[in-house]
Amino acid sequence: MNNSIQQILSYNEQFVEEKQYEQYLTDRFPDKKMVILTCMDTRLTELLPRAMNLRNGDVKVLKNAGAIVTQPFGNIMRSILVAIYELQAEEVLIIGHYNCGMTGVDPEAIISKMIARGVPKTTVRTLRHSGLDFRRWLTGFDNVRSSVEKSVGIVRNHPLLPPSTPVHGLIIDPQTGKLDLVADGYDFLKQPIAEEQ
Fold first, then answer.
1. pTM of the prediction?
2. How far apart are CA 41 and CA 153, in angstroms?
């Protein structure tokens, strides 16, 4: 076992003593009034903010595996709504990325790894019998563009989202930082509402 946490705490003590935090001081409200959902991929940690000219305090950033919104009433959507109603965000950006680790994820392979790392087979069996759909819960996507579009659709059509909220979809190149616009929230809001037949 390595000593990573001790290295972090040691560095942190020096960071605080030297007041290095002062350059990051801001408040809890995003200056650019945006909330971003992106992937937890390590390549995006510094690249994404720099590629978007974002500084500490500019936006609220949510991260998960694949930048996926799977449930309209799950944690991600709750965080988006809190950012809008409590933290003054006015726009939502869903930013996936090319070459994502969630592309083609096989839930059965993940379950095999769980068992290999010590999760009892009986636990997996019990969860399956209790109704947990591992395929749905652990599945990634086949195409990042369609995944971003699907997540944008879930957010955009949420019954608790203010109707005037632009929801954008983008894909970033994890090597160069180039952004491709997939769904323009401004254009969507300009479209006439289709009458139900």
1. 0.89
2. 23
